[in-house]
Amino acid sequence: YSSVLGYTLIDPAISFSSSDTEAIELTPLSNNSFVAAFCDESSDDITFAIYYTNNTVIKSQTDADTNVQNCNGNDNEVSVSAFNSSLFVLAWFDANDTDITFGVYNLSGNNISTIADVDTTIGSLSSVSVSAFNSTAFVIGWSDTGTSTSQNISYSIYDINANNLVSQKVTDTISNAVLNRGISLSTINSTA
User: Fold this and answer.
1) Non-local CB neighbours of 108 within 8 Å, separated by 6+ positions
2) DSSP string for 46-107
3) Residue 21, burial from CB neighbour count under 10 angstroms (0-12, 13-18, 19+)
């Protein structure tokens, strides 16, 4: 809600087949534009769209991944963070392939990097979070249900070309009860 704009329906074409809409992420690109990313329950895909704050569409709904399986069964499966006013990173949990994936996109909705799989053995439940450090690098974190010996929270750092700058680091080993409850990352400045 904005006291200036009031309530705004972002896109009437977005519909959910259940009341579980926890996989919606928004991030500002500039003072008058933002990216909306979500898991589309009707087709189990990761979708994003770019809007001006006056609700004008910059880029209509675009699928980043067309088969992630079971959107409404997994929470916190998509995350988005802006590098600047024209580039953003989109990360998601793909239950179909049991991996954490990301891509870097521009305002036209084009992927400017390769679609990269960060961890390909995460199991059937996970959550993901991404945060840009600056205009060229970001940190990605995720929970991993993998095997009974690899249930943990990990992070890695990449650049906008999908080059791995810091390999996977495990921050904590966790129990199965909290694995898909969500994680959140936020960068402090351009290096931390």
Assistant:
1) 59
2) EEEEEEETTS-EEEEEEEEES----GGGSSS-EEEEESSSSEEEEEEEETTTTEEEEEEEET
3) middle
Count of Cβ atoms closer than 10 Å to residue 71 Cβ: 27
18-44 confidence digits (pLDDT tens): 444 557 889 999 999 999 998 877 778
The position carrying tokens 């694995």 is 179
Residue 111 in contact with residue 62, Cβ under 8 Å?
Answer: no
Task: Look up residue 10 and give its two tokens.
Answer: 């972002």
Percent of residues, the chain, with pLDDT higher than 70: 72
Q: Which two tokens stand for residue 108?
A: 């036209």
What pTM did the predictor assign? 0.84
pLDDT in tens, 83-116: 999 999 999 988 888 889 999 999 999 999 989 9
Cα separation, 129 vs 143, in Å, equals 9
Rounded CA-CA distance 168/132 in Å is 17
